[in-house]
Amino acid sequence: MARSRAAYEYTEAEDKSMRLGFLLIAAGLLSLLGLGCCWLRPALQERGGGGSTNCTVLAVRQLGERFACTFSCGAACRGTARYPCLQVLVRTSRSSAPALLHEDERQLRTNPKCSYIPPCARDDQENSENVTHKQKYWKEKVGSQPFTCYFNQHLRPDDVMLKRTHDETVLLHCFLWPVVTFLVGVLIVVLTICAKSLAIRAEAIKKKKHL
């Protein structure tokens, strides 16, 4: 009787394997839950009301208004500088009304009045030069050439983005790796149980042969 009970008990290696499997299952589920609540759901909501369209530059201009940005020059060194506001007005294939172009959703939230936020430098003149360089790019290099842009009705229907913050690759990896972790955990648990079951059957067959 004691030998039969011992046959059904997991060895130390099998016990560790089962614990690892359950740990991976729990990690996968918690990762999916955390990413879904904190990151994936807002990202899908952003993309839900959006799509792509063709844009053509109508006007590129600098406004007289300047905006503040924060620069960092070391661990304990921070300060405030200012940059001019660049606006790139475009026409989209979905509407005849002009729209304001933005780099991405983050830039739109940070400064909805402007099309470009330069890397914040300590010197205001350097910030102005960066904005002027971007202005020349849109005027001379892009000009009247059509390009792909993106819109999102949930944010601001009269604005378009040059690129998306959350693209398909990021969303895929956000969903893929927690699922892979969960499936690997399930596979480890199933293989361990199957291996134990086969070992018990082999032991039972061996005993019958000796009887």
TrEMBL record:
Question: Keyword set for this entry?
Answer: Glycoprotein, Ion channel, Ion transport, Membrane, Transmembrane, Transmembrane helix, Transport
Which positions carry the signal peptide feature in this UniProt record? none
- Judging by the UniProt lineage, the source's domain of life is Eukaryota
* GO BP: any one term: detection of calcium ion
Membrane topology per the entry is: Multi-pass membrane protein
GO MF annotations, alphabetized: calcium-activated potassium channel activity; potassium channel regulator activity
UniProt-listed Pfam families:
CaKB
| PANTHER family the record matches | CALCIUM-ACTIVATED POTASSIUM CHANNEL SUBUNIT BETA, CALCIUM-ACTIVATED POTASSIUM CHANNEL SUBUNIT BETA-4
Protein name per Swiss-Prot or TrEMBL: KCMB4 protein
Q: What is the lineage of its organism?
A: Eukaryota, Metazoa, Chordata, Craniata, Vertebrata
